[in-house]
Amino acid sequence: MSHTPVGVRRTQKLRTRQALLDAALDLLEHQSLSSLGLREVTRAAGVTPTAFYRHFEDTAALGVALVEETLGSLHGLIAAVLAETGDSEERLDRSVAVIARHVGAQPAHFRFIAREQHGGVGPVRAAIAAQLRRFAEEVACALGQEPGSAGWSEEDLLMLGGLYVDHMVITTSTLLEAGPEGEAEVVRVARRRLRLVTIGRAHWLDEG
Amino acid sequence: MSHTPVGVRRTQKLRTRQALLDAALDLLEHQSLSSLGLREVTRAAGVTPTAFYRHFEDTAALGVALVEETLGSLHGLIAAVLAETGDSEERLDRSVAVIARHVGAQPAHFRFIAREQHGGVGPVRAAIAAQLRRFAEEVACALGQEPGSAGWSEEDLLMLGGLYVDHMVITTSTLLEAGPEGEAEVVRVARRRLRLVTIGRAHWLDEG
DNA sequence: CCGTTCGGAGTACGAGTGTTCACTGACTTG
DNA sequence: CAAGTCAGTGAACACTCGTACTCCGAACGG
């Protein structure tokens, strides 16, 4: 047992690492990752430029870390929302509400994801795509366990899951553009869109 | 009537302007607009940095010009595709095919749009949003003239139009990520998604 | 034909960039 | 408690960047 339980050193390292991530997220509110300077980040974090290399190789690597931080903690959430009881209308409303709440709580994180999903930094794009694919699979799995999905093929479930996930991404983007005052309207339209998709889902096997 | 019918000067000016746009589009294949340097563009275009200012105030202004170039010429196309006869299945397949063809023909243009739709340059974001809104309105208008849209409210038509447009944007992004070899699969899934939306549309008034 | 317009060239400046290097001093380990 | 590890420092490197000048010469209008 050492004198310092967890290691003062590791703790401090994680602290400055987080300071770098936070500073970067702040700066990324008004620019995109490919124009984000290493020095710019360290200056905002209160560290010298050389210290950056102790934590990340690139600004690209920092971007990938930001992706994990934002999307990594969301995986449990989806399954939880979809697993709750209630008719589809209720669950749909709840899903949209959950998204609106999360986006409202940490806009910068979601702005970053929306911006870099198709941004100029390859590794970051790949990291986001991988996370979204996982979301689509999770949604497909949750849908597959419902009675309403009897007779659906694996592939169609994935298609539907991807459809829902893409709509969630679009909704977050729109929420960010609209700002707090436009949130209600965006939520209204998003609900209607999802309802239309759900209706299509209910009649999919009739006309597929 | 002057000695030179169109004006040699204006022609040359337009020529270098186009050279700047083309060079920028090339460079934007692997980075985003906010990291694109003025000098970088002029170097690739074979012009001195100062010449840039004769055509654009900013790289942002150049970006807006690129948006117009890419999206401005597409407005007639949508109405044309939607106006053609045939059942909804046929029209749907044709729409997807038209998109795949356009994206395949000029990938760089569409990559630029996908990248800057949520990118770090405000004016460009605004320009793209304005164009997409116009698209949504055009689609809504076209849909409203169909017999299948009887009883639909103006607002719901716009919602549906936006839904279609957003799906088109998603499809273009996915096509770009997949590359030529993955095109067939992407087109398959995109068609299925649109079919599901169309089914939802057919039953919208039953359960709305 | 002559004066004007103007697209573009050339030069120069200050500021900011990513990266390397030797170095320091607090924490950690045996 | 001594030896070693290592997060962070500070100075220096060789760039690129946007922008402000002046200037040239071909195309233009009267």
Features:
homodimer; 208 residues; mainly alpha; Arc Repressor Mutant, subunit A; Tetracycline Repressor, domain 2; elongated; DNA-binding; DNA-binding (chains A, B)
Describe the structure.
Chains A, B: This is TetR family transcriptional regulator. Chains A, B: InterPro entries: Homeodomain-like_sf, HTH_TetR, HTH_transcr_repressor_FabR. Chains A, B: Pfam families: TetR_N. 2 copies of one chain form a homodimer. By secondary structure, chain A is mainly alpha-helical. Chain A folds into 2 domains: 8-56, Orthogonal Bundle (Arc Repressor Mutant, subunit A), CATH 1.10.10; 69-207, Tetracycline Repressor, domain 2. Helices cover 72% and strands 0% of the residues of chain A. The first copy, chain A, contains 10 helices and no strands. In chain A, helix 3 runs parallel beside helix 7 (122-144), helix 5 (88-105) runs antiparallel to helix 9 and helix 6 packs across helix 8 (154-178). The mean pLDDT of chain A is 94.
The best one-word shape of chain A is elongated
The Cα radius of gyration of chain A reads: 20 Å
Content of β-strand of chain A: under 5%
Residue runs with pLDDT of under 50 for 5 or more positions of chain A:
none
Domain HTH tetR-type (chains A, B): 14-74
Pfam family, one (chains A, B): TetR_N
Keywords (chains A, B): DNA-binding
InterPro entries (chains A, B): Homeodomain-like_sf, HTH_TetR, HTH_transcr_repressor_FabR
What is the gist of this entry?
Two copies of one chain form a homodimer. The first copy, chain A, is built from ten helices and no strands.
